[in-house]
Amino acid sequence: MTANVAASAEVDTVALPAAPTLRGSLRAAAVDFYYNSWRLVPANVLWAIGLVGLYVVFIFWPFGALLLLPLLALPTVGIYRMAALIVRGESVSFWDAVGAWRRFLAAALGAGFAIVLAGAIFTVNLFGGLASSEP
Question: What is the pLDDT along the chain (135 residues), one digit of tens a residue?
Fold first, then answer.
């Protein structure tokens, strides 16, 4: 019993780190932006190309764009993977995003289809509710 009291007394005396200041947080954000933005830009450009491609498909074949929309989850998962590696302090390159497409292919496409399906259901429910005469 006394060993637990002594151990808890030691924990209470450990000093907490100083709270971050606004200036320090802004400086850390600027440094992080400077060193990591050039790594994320190619992946974001690839995502934008995919979005523009979907828009072009939508102009000519709206249903086809809806079918291809879950494929946009692949560049998204690549960006998320790179961001996770940056936060963990690991080295990052564009090829980490490409590797995430292979590694998380099934999960990304499954999530993409689920999000598109949920969005379609939400849209139908929203417009169905707005068209009805009941609250």
Answer: 555 655 555 556 778 888 889 998 899 889 888 888 888 888 899 999 999 999 999 999 988 888 899 999 999 999 999 988 988 888 888 888 888 988 999 999 999 999 999 999 999 999 998 898 887
Q: In 2-104, which ranges are continuous DSSP H helix?
A: 2-13, 22-60, 62-68, 73-87, 94-103
Could you tell me which of 98, 99, 94, 95 has the C-alpha nearest to residue 42?
A: 94
Kindly state the tokens that stand for 82. 């790179």
pTM of the model: 0.69
Question: Which residues have a Cβ under 8 Å from the Cβ of 93 and sit 6 or more positions away?
Answer: 39
Type of residue numbered 12: D
Instruction: Output the furthest CA–CA distance in the chain (Å, rounded).
Output: 77
Which of helix, strand or coil describes residue 19? coil
The alpha carbon torsion through 45, 47, 51, 57 (nearest 10 deg) reads 100
H/E stretch holding 129: helix 105-131
